[in-house]
Amino acid sequence: MKIFMLPKIAIRLCLLLPALAASVDADAAQPAKKYTANARKIALDAEDAGEFVNFGQWKEVNDFIDHMVATHGFNRTELEAILGKVRYVDSAIQLIKPPPPGRPKNWRAYRARFVEPMRINAGVAFWDANADALARAEAEYGVPAEIIVGIIGVETVYGRNTGNFRVMDAVTTLAFAYPDTPTRAARMSYFRGELENVLLFARDSGIDPFSLLGSYAGAIGWPQFMPSSIRQFAVDFNGDRKIDLRNSPVDAIGSVANFLIKHGWKSGEPIVFPATISSNEGNSWETFIGQGLEAKFKLDDLKAAGVLPGMETPADMLFGLVDLQNGAEPTEYWLGANNFFAITQYNRSFFYAMSVIDLGRAVKASRSR
């Protein structure tokens, strides 16, 4: 994931997780240094030395507290106490770093990680156990059950791998000590928004923010929703008057469907079509590569450039050219329709969207045997 994301309506949520207050309070009692612009290096040095890092004494964190007090009416003393308990998590920093440059993309290797027997079997069991909820989500939202099953399977192997990072630790670390990358400023801003949503979500739900566990990037529960996505897109799909993405697969099913609808999914429309490239038209087809996560090209224009559908394709729809690189092997090409790009809003990757589609199809086929 991701990630990515992510969105803002206050929806009540109760995640039934144990609080970790005792260990947090013990850490908070230790002395902390005054951090300045060199916060990243100080944090690393402090962690290496086994010293507690008090984010509450960072200037940037105090600016954030000012914002939360002025904008959302938080009590300054209480918020300072919360942020004073946060732990710096260097493993989140290491995991968020981009892969080394020069490593070739390989769609087949990526796909093999997700479309494999263990995950397919787990998907069949998940579908069988939640068939009514999946059918209801498909009827109410128009999102096929196989797509919902594919997303939850890729994200967490159907709830098996939801993450054990304290979300407050992960998002605060990434909000204020993001690694040095070309997108550092934008990513820090994004994670500060997620920290804001964690605090709002915890306050609205009446829960301890330190009770929330998730991925190294702060994603929570079966569908790995970021805090802002929970607040905007999560739904109470099992009717128990609370939203629980960590313990309720039914809430996860409805929430995934709602997310896709809110990101442009069109009920009944196709998703993706195989394509080939004709060399007879020169290299004009290359102008359709890297044109964003959007279906915006007419089929006739793609054909004129040498992009040929591998099956009958609706002439009145718009498409995007999807290139799935295979290292030294030939690239796979597909024509992505609007619904394909709706999936990429969950995770901004062609590889991700195709793995969701392929896993969902594989689970569906296995159930029908």
Strand content: 5-15%
What's the level 1 CATH class of the domain at 21-99 and 163-247?
Mainly Alpha
**Major sheet: arrangement of strands:** 4-6-7-3-5
Structural class: alpha+beta
| Overall 3D form | globular
Taking all Cα atoms into account, the compactness measure Rg is 22 Å
Describe this protein's structure:
By secondary structure, the chain is of the alpha+beta class. It has a domain at 21-99 and 163-247: Bacterial muramidase (Helicase, Ruva Protein, domain 3, Orthogonal Bundle). 47% of the residues lie in helices and 9% in strands. The chain has helices at 21-28, 39-48, 59-72, 76-83, 90-96, 107-114, 117-129, 131-141, 145-156, 167-176, 184-205, 227-233, 249-262, 299-304, 338-344, 350-367; strands spanning 165-166, 213-214, 272-277, 297-298, 307-309, 318-326, 329-336. The strands form two sheets. It has a five-stranded antiparallel beta sheet. Strands 1-2 form a two-stranded antiparallel sheet. A hairpin with a 2-residue loop joins strand 6 and strand 7. Helix 15 packs across helix 16 (350-367). It is globular and about 70 Å long. The two termini are 31 Å apart.
